[in-house]
Amino acid sequence: MSHTGSVWTDGLEPGRQAVALGVAAVLTIVAIDVLLVGELSFFFDLCFIVLCLGLALVVRAHDFFTVGVLPPLMMLAVFTLLGAVAPETVADRGDGLVQALVSGLAHHSGALVAGYAVCLGTLWMRQRTIRQRSDVRGSDSQRLPS
């Protein structure tokens, strides 16, 4: 029997590699934005949403949960890192780690919600497609040859 899978149903990367890709990409986006603008801007927000979509598209079906919980964790990690190293990029210069974390999450909550919704929606559509495909294969295998 030939394999008729696709990237949409099978994915490309295991969960661990998708997480590593996501972390590397989000840190690259942060570095570019901070170097160009001096703080996180709308550029970060847009790239974060696109990154969430990309991760939902490349992960293998077996690891949907891993990528499904990744967007808020990536955002939390970014703002924790920036709050510890360069709080002025997400908050006022004198703010501490916790205030920078809260300010960063508040200012970029739209990107977090949109990225998370895009990620979960994409994973849901992929899961639905996989179930439909397996239902079709199951009904085909139950037919008797004539």
TrEMBL record:
- Domain (DUF6542): residue spans on this chain: 14-126
Q: Which organism is it from?
A: Nocardioides currus
Q: List UniProt keywords, sorted A-Z.
A: Membrane, Transmembrane, Transmembrane helix
Protein name in UniProt: DUF6542 domain-containing protein
Membrane-crossing residue ranges in chain numbering: 18-36, 42-59, 64-85, 105-125
Please, which domain of life does this record's source organism belong to?
Answer: Bacteria
InterPro entries the record matches: DUF6542
